[in-house]
Structure formats: structure tokens, C-alpha cells
Specification:
The chain is of the alpha/beta class. Helix content is about 40%, strand content about 15%. The protein contains 8 helices and 8 strands; from the N terminus they run E-H-E-H-E-H-E-H-E-H-H-E-H-H-E-E. Helix 1 runs parallel beside helix 2, helix 1 packs across helix 8 and helix 3 packs parallel to helix 4. The N and C termini lie far apart (about 50 Å). NADP nicotinamide-adenine-dinucleotide phosphate (NAP) binds next to helix 1 and helix 7.
């Protein structure tokens, strides 16, 4: 398909629903071949149907991101088949639980850390060499306003998102002199299953749809992006600078 990402290859995690589903559709509409990762096969197949009927193409990867060996095999399979990767969107995530720190169950804490941080690191480790082989590698890691707001009961989720931002900033400094550009994104409150879990009393119709939010995130994958190591704020539709350490 013709578009800004024509002939390019993209990995999107958490592509079975919500923001990741719409980012995957948006990247495919710009011509990328999308490798769509998630556990829910039904959601991935729906995405595949939508993308194919619009003339695009996908490879579906049903994978639980707690399976670290599976992440390594994904990187190996991309290396064998394509030899490089142009776009990586680390979007999959869990809310875990909203609770006082002392009430968080160890099982919930560990699973949320595993999916939100460890899998992101493992994906970066697996995909970084392939992204560096692209002439315009682009990585987008989904963060949240929670990483900065320190709200009561949000500690688990907030800590994982703050960790993801730290990974991105260091990764950007490590890749500054390559063609790879890596940035975090704060999508803002978005009408998805995760937001409904966090805010069950909220009227979802008051929130932007995942499609509207994804439309602002997809251009961060374009070859003309120059920013790296920054946080893109979807509401403000601009990159924010991190303050230099004191
Ligand atoms: P969502 O609708 O709950 O979707 C989450 C996605 O992550 C699903 O596709 C899910 O797929 C995948 N996922 C979860 N656990 C997984 C696992 N173990 N292995 C593989 N995939 C897994 O969430 P969303 O609202 O679209 O959120 C997308 C991203 O935006 C997240 O990183 C979230 O933290 C961030 N964010 C969202 C909001 C918001 O208001 N919605 C605000 C700020 C930040 P399966 O269940 O099929 O595996």
C-alpha cells in the first residue's frame, strides 16, 4: 500500500484491542506490514480482517509477553525473515490494581512489573539490533500521565510507567548517533477497557476514542521524525522536554 510507511515493517504489542489495535490499523493504512502481538487470537484476527480488507498486510503473533523466551524467538524470527525492523510500538500494558501500596498482592505486583517493564526491556533487547539496521528506525513506548502524577493508589502502575520512560531516555542516549529515534507517549485518558477498569464510574463517551488517539501517535513512526528521548503528549499534540537532572 502507498503511504508514509510504504514497504516498512512494524511490530505493535497489545494489538488485539484498544489503542494498540488502532495504532496497528493506522500503521498498516500508511503502508507498513504490521506484526501484531497479543494473547487474544480473536482480537488479532479481527484486526487482520480489517487491515486486509483495506488492502494492507499483517503477520499475527499470539504471544503472552510474560514468555521471555517467546519474545527472544520473535526477534529471531524477524531477523531470519526480514533482517531488519523499521517501527516498534511497545503498547501492551496492564493496570494491575489501584490500591494502597501495602494492600497490593505480590502476584499482581510481579505480573504487572513483568508485562509493563520486563517485557518492554526484553523486547528492546531483542529488537534494538534490527531497528538499527533500518535507515529510519522508530520506537514508541506507551507511558501514562500516571508516571508523573504520584496519585494515591496508583503506585504500581505509575512505577512501571516511570520505569518505561527511564528505559526510553537511556536507550535514546545510547542510540543518539544512529538513525534510530525512540520516544515515550502519554496518550491521555482514552476510551478503552483499561480506562474503564481504572475509572468504572466514568462515562466513556466523555473520552477520546482509541482511534482518535492513535491518529496522533502513528506519525511518530514516520521517517521524518527527528526527536528522540522525549515524551509525546497526545492531548497537547507535541513533544515535551525532560528537565535536565539538577
Ligand atoms: P487495553 O485496551 O487494556 O489493551 C491492552 C493491550 O495489551 C491488549 O491488546 C492486551 O492484549 C495487551 N496485553 C495485556 N497483557 C498482555 C500480555 N501478558 N501479553 C501480551 N499482550 C498483553 O489498554 P489500552 O487502554 O489500549 O492501553 C494501551 C497502552 O496505553 C497501555 O500501555 C496503557 O498503559 C497506556 N495508557 C492507556 C490510557 C487509557 O486511558 N486507556 C492512558 C494512559 C496510558 P491481550 O489481552 O489480547 O493479550
Amino acid at each position: 500500500m502507498a503511504g508514509r510507511l510504504s514497504g516498512r515493517l512494524a511490530v505493535v504489542t497489545g494489538a488485539s484491542r484498544g489503542i494498540g489495535y488502532q495504532i496497528a490499523k493506522g500503521l498498516a493504512a500508511e503502508g507498513a506490514h504490521v506484526i501484531a502481538v497479543a494473547r487474544t487470537v480473536g482480537g488479532l484476527e479481527e484486526l487482520d480482517d480489517e487491515i486486509k480488507s483495506a488492502g494492507g498486510s499483517t503477520t499475527l503473533v499470539p504471544l503472552d509477553l510474560t514468555d521471555m523466551g517467546g519474545i527472544d524467538r520473535l526477534g529471531g524470527a524477524i531477523a531470519d525473515r526480514w533482517g531488519k525492523l523499521d517501527v516498534f510500538v511497545a503498547n501492551a500494558g496492564l493496570l494491575g490494581v489501584l490500591a494502597p501500596i501495602g494492600h497490593i498482592e505480590a502476584k499482581t505486583f510481579e505480573k504487572t512489573v513483568t508485562v509493563n517493564i520486563t517485557a518492554t526491556w526484553r523486547l528492546i533487547r531483542s529488537l534494538d539490533p534490527l531497528l538499527r539496521k533500518s535507515d529510519a528506525g522508530r520506537a514508541i513506548v506507551m507511558s501514562s500521565g500516571a508516571a508523573h502524577s504520584a496519585k494515591a493508589f496508583w503506585a504500581l502502575y505509575a512505577a512501571t510507567k516511570a520505569a518505561d520512560e527511564a528505559l526510553v531516555r537511556s536507550w535514546a542516549n545510547e542510540t543518539m548517533n544512529s538513525a534510530l529515534r525512540v520516544n515515550s507517549v502519554n496518550p491521555g485518558a482514552t476510551r478503552t477497557a483499561m480506562r474503564a477498569q481504572a475509572m468504572p464510574g466514568e462515562d466513556p463517551k466523555t473520552l477520546p476514542t482509541a482511534r482518535e488517539v492513535a491518529a496522533r501517535i502513528v506519525p511518530l513512526a514516520f521517517p521524518d521524525v527527528t526527536e528522540t528521548g522525549k515524551l509525546f503528549d497526545v492531548r497537547q499534540n507535541r513533544f515535551l522536554d525532560y528537565r535536565d537532572p539538577a
